[in-house]
Amino acid sequence: MTGDERCRLYLITPAVLEPVAFADRLQAALDGGDVACLQLRLKDVDDDAFRRAIERLMPIAHAHDVPFLVNDRPDLAAEFGCDGAHVGQQDTPYAEARRLLGPDAIVGVTCHDSRHLAMEAADAGADYVAFGAFFHTETKPPRFWATTELIEAWSQVTTVPCVAIGGIKPDNLGPIVQAGADFICVVTGVWDHPDGPGGGVAAYNRAIAAALAG
Ligand SMILES: Cc1ncc(COP(=O)(O)OP(=O)(O)O)c(N)n1
Ligand SMILES: Cc1nc(C(=O)O)sc1CCOP(=O)(O)O
């Protein structure tokens, strides 16, 4: 994951899923077009459920050349040789995640609405920083609000890629892309898309391309 390319789609799984049934939906999503990264984000599950999901879903991501990251659990990501992990401000600290995963893994950090947190993460070596939420979302009711001004300011001072997250849909992503976001990160806009997950991925990619063109 580098920030020196065009803006790309970063996909997060639903927080509750049954791995065998979800595998077909993941396959459909990744068949729908370009996805830069897949993050497994499970909530309220035990370690065995996490392990079953990693074992079933990571090969599908890899068959599409999509890096597979695990949210909150760099220990499990390391155990299964995943491509990396995403950690929040209340999770395993960045330095410990990096120690567990090694220098070549992708480690991203939630930075909410804060350029200061983002600088700290980038200086420590994070591969990307994540800003959000941009819009209201039921997926995770926002406590912080990020802005396109933050993305613009970030892009001017550093080359460390930034991810924009929170309520982002094909019809509201234009200003975020034009402000310089490297990745548009999405949960429901893909999984709940009326044309299915593949249609959702295609719709985001069309909207990103239109924003970059226009
Ligand atoms: C790419 C990306 N950005 C932000 C988050 C949110 O992470 P966090 O603050 O740790 O909250 P939970 O996802 O654990 O609810 C993310 N997962 N991914
Ligand atoms: C997991 C997560 N983190 C956020 C943050 O603001 O840090 S918003 C969010 C949920 C994003 O889901 P959707 O694309 O369905 O709005």
Automatic annotation (TrEMBL):
| Domain Thiamine phosphate synthase/TenI: start-end pairs | 9-190
User: What cofactors does this protein use?
Assistant: Mg(2+)
Output the Pfam families linked to this UniProt entry: TMP-TENI (PF02581)
The terms describing its cellular component in GO are: cytoplasm
Please tell me where Mg(2+) binds in this chain. Answer: D72, D91
User: What PANTHER family would the database entry show?
Assistant: THIAMINE-PHOSPHATE PYROPHOSPHORYLASE, THIAMINE-PHOSPHATE SYNTHASE
Q: What is this protein called?
A: Thiamine-phosphate synthase
